Amino acid sequence: MKKIKNFISSRNKRERIMMAGILFCALAIWASSMMTRRSEIDIQKIDLDKRMLVAQTAIKMEANIVERLKKLEAEIDKTKTLSPDDLQIAIENAAKEAELDYSISNVTTTPVGEFKVNKIILTTTPQELYVIAKFESLLAKLEPYVAVAESTLTGDKQGKASVRYIISSFN
Which residues contact 134 (CB under 8 A, 6 or more apart)? Predict the structure, then answer.
């Protein structure tokens, strides 16, 4: 410590001011990086708190969830679930019956527990809204075995819209 004091006192005033400025800048950079890291930690903590709240709510509702699951299982006839090929055929038939101009992807299958979730993407060209509504009403007839997982509607300011559907089923 004495060596540092002797070193600093041996410098002229201008050099001491420059050293103090450099030290101040280094401390400012260090403090800034610490505050950035602290804010990142705070964001992660807020996210974890939200997740914990959701988990605690689900745990509190376990009995209700199990009851609803048993009720749904009783309502579903496993012989009416759609295979990937049956899903594609059902969606294409509904689109053709609605006179929809569309393109369709191949079915992707993801195992989820004892079930397999099948997904297909159907994209339309700009259509009159009544054609889209007719297609959606035909899809509704396939419920609960087929569901629209996601849809994105894009209007064209002339009464037409194109839609991108992600449709799923299980077997």
Answer: 97, 98, 99
Alpha carbon 14 to its chain centroid, in Å, reads 58
The reported pLDDT for the residue numbered 89 is 92
Number of H helices and E strands in the chain, helices first, is 5, 6
Model pTM score: 0.58
Q: Which two tokens stand for residue 29?
A: 């950079």
Select from 128, 132, 121, 137 the least CA-distant residue to 156: 128
Nearest-angstrom CA–CA distance, 60 and 75? 25
Q: How far, rounded to the nearest angstrom, does the alpha carbon of residue 24 sit from its chain's CA centroid?
A: 44
pLDDT at residue 77 greater than cutoff 80 = no
Mean pLDDT computed over 60-68: 89
